[in-house]
Fold this protein.
Amino acid sequence: MVDSTIGHGGHSFLFGKSLGSEAVLIGLDVDENCLREAKSRLNGLACKVILLRSNFSQITPRLEELGIGRVDFILADLGVCSAQLTDVQMGLSFQTNMPLDMRFDKSLKTTAADIVNKADEKSLADLIYRLGQDRASRRIARFVAEYRRNQPITSTAQLAAIVCKATAQPAKNRKSKIHPATRTFQALRIAVNGEMENLEKLLDSAPNVLKGTGKIAVISYHSLEDGLVKNNFKQNQKKGLYRIITKKPIVPGRREIADNPRARSAKLRIAEKIAG
């Protein structure tokens, strides 16, 4: 199996406990800290564990390098690891003031601060609307452009305050449960890490990587990701490549959401490769 977003190895540990010594569990992640945590957690499993620093868009060449042609299972949990949200070096959160970075892979050249300070107002508004689905994108971009004329935007606290001002919503004592900067931060994170493009490459690679009756399972957290997964599965089913197992996505129940509020928007879709 390939856990294409291994994070700290939580999912892989659960799967790995049921795998014997003949099985191979391959974990991919671009974050070196996650790979170190996963290595520690998965140590002691009976199956062979191979951890690689790689984006899941490169699943095909990574498997070829290992001499593995096809796999039985691909898992992709598209959520951000909780530890990454609190990591100051990541710059993902507005809950704590951090440098405005957002790169999971530090070899990437462009940071969120680069986009916020260098993109023209229209491009920034389009980005926030397209990837963050925020109807206030034009106003947010205008406020950002006005602010950066006097000084650069370098921290998450700066950007969050600008968005709150643009939307006339305070960070605290607001009516909505969603922080006003959530969608802007989502849009920038997706853009910085090329998340939609990489997901599309993974989904396109999967039919060639899976064995007959092999399965792919994807957990998404916003409608852009879920729409991409849903459409890909449907197209591959029409082509006779997949059988969709989840006619509707599996979502968390009230109890799970109470235990883990970050799971509230999670949607799991599963498809099976048709043998042949």
